Amino acid sequence: MKLNIIAVISLIVLTSIFDTINQLFLKSSINSLNWKVDSVKKIFALIARLLVTPRVWMGFFFCCLSLSVWLFVLSKADLNFAFSADSMHYIFIAFSSSLILKEKVGARRWVGTIFIVMGITLLTISKKG
Amino acid sequence: MLNKRLTFKIILFLIASDLLETAAQYCFKRTAMSGSDFFITNFSDALFFLKTCLLSPFIWLAFVMIFLTFIIWSTILSKIDLSVAVPVASFSYILVPLTSIFFLHEKVTMLDWTGILFILTGVIFVCTSTEKGATG
Questions:
Q1: Is residue A95 scored above 90 in pLDDT?
Q2: Which chain B residues are Cβ-neighbours of A101 within 8 angstroms?
Q3: What global pTM score does this model have?
């Protein structure tokens, strides 16, 4: 039995939002540590620090939510369609990076992001035909 | 202040993280396929679905890959902006069709090439937005 298209799209939006929240938590934790990674040892030290940061675990919680919804979508929807709809999360990331993380997302980065979303959509559409 | 420029080394890291994530996605799909024969209408159905998933060996393989991806991804994020890392990671969308073109000699439509070109253009735009003097 298949779910209707609106339900599938809403679930994909939900999984994209959860995933964006996860990325924001992780990136903001890394930003706040202000770690300079220049050796393998430093990488593992960074991972160790991240694993004891509550915000990373909050991100992980959202990652699990996103994953559960995504698993459910994959079991019900066409993989190509799911992936093309999921490409909207690039837009969410660009928006939230500039609003919440105060990254400087200029015109060039926006144009690039939109090109990528269109490209992914074209690739996935072509797989269906 | 940290150097936010996207270097060749970071691009290699991004590709590694892409490959691992693709492998993890494949494992998740295999997991989900084992549960596609039932329709979830209530909470106990959902729990049963989750239980079936957790019993699949593929999901555990996927978890290992996700942890490795986490290590690589954290390293990447300690060096560049999130709004650069995420779009550039979309490179994997090109890697898969290109692999099937060159190694599996699959037929590629005009629409495929257009899609690949769009993604490539987008990635180049995002990459060059980190260069010195660019406004972002």
A1: yes
A2: 81-83
A3: 0.80
